[in-house]
Amino acid sequence: MISIGLVGCGAVVHSNYAKTLPVRSEYSVRFVSDINEAQAQSAAALFNAQATPLDELVRQADAIIITTPPSTHEDLVLKSIRSGRVVLCEKPFMTSAAAARRVVDAAAAANSELFVGHFRRTFPQVRLARDLVKLGTIGQVQAIRMSEGGRFTWKAVSGYTVRDPAGGVLWDTGSHTLDTALFVAGMDLWPDLELSKIQVRKDKAEPSHDFKARFEVLGGKAGQSPVGFQLHFSRFEALPNFIEIIGERGKISLSAGMDTRVRLATAEGSIVLSAEEQYAEILECFELQLRRILLRDGQEDFAAFRFVGLTTILETLSNA
């Protein structure tokens, strides 16, 4: 059985991991660690696990899941990687593209498998939309539009969402939506991304809570034209939660939340397609991500190198 160590025992552990990491024949949470002793003890009780100092957890666990605020991720990942070990880092991955490259390179050098938790990649409509793009249904991607917003109710124990520069709506909600769009468009595999023609409007310095931007992204294969982006994320305003991938021969529209449907529009007309996969609730997708990573079955979609481009976009926009 794979013994899991949880580093960080805040809100996401109590709300998501506690419901999706039950004791299974293949793996179970054996160790938890947090600088807040009360949080560590609470999580230990949830999983019937041992609350331990970080060094002890790193020494004993077979796999490590890092759920702390983003500013701590680089140091914790570097402490956790070792030969043969799976390390899963929650989103947002790193606070800079340079840090993302450092940990990806360090994991490869140590023969450790490093993954990033972006469970929306398992949503049925996201998988269907990605397949349509890969099949060339809309031709080369030319533009991407997206928005997501609503009253913010998440209560991070650390308070990083209102204090940490990487805790604002762009890094929190926006990293989900942007990652979904990049994944669908196949742009998460682009080796190096560059942003140009950047226009940003936000309510305040980071961490901001309402964020709008227009920009272009370069970095695809030879002959790839720049892809134009337009986005709006908000913690104040209820926005349409959607992603639109526009190609030279049509467009694909999908919900930013869990769904099964995709609208495909081409010169021949518009049609709504439904994915074969069906899930009753969002946490089923969260658990599916964990199974794929921990059991090394379909884990490639979550490999850390695929999130360097996303980190480049987040860092560049937040500093604009």
Features:
single chain, Dihydrodipicolinate Reductase, domain 2, 6-stranded parallel beta sheet, Rossmann fold, 10 helices, 2 domains, alpha/beta, 320 residues, 8-stranded mixed beta sheet
Could you list the spans in which at least 5 consecutive residues all have pLDDT below 50?
Answer: none
Instruction: Specify Rg, calculated over alpha carbons.
Output: 19 Å
| Element pattern in H and E | EHEHEHEHEHEHEHHEEEEEEEHH
Helix content: 25-40%
Mean pLDDT: 95
- Number of discrete domains: 2
Classified in CATH, the superfamily of the largest domain is Dihydrodipicolinate Reductase, domain 2
Structural shape: globular
CATH architecture annotation of the largest domain:
2-Layer Sandwich
Assess the beta-strand content as a share of residues: 25-35%
In the CATH hierarchy, the third-tier topology of the largest domain is known as Dihydrodipicolinate Reductase, domain 2
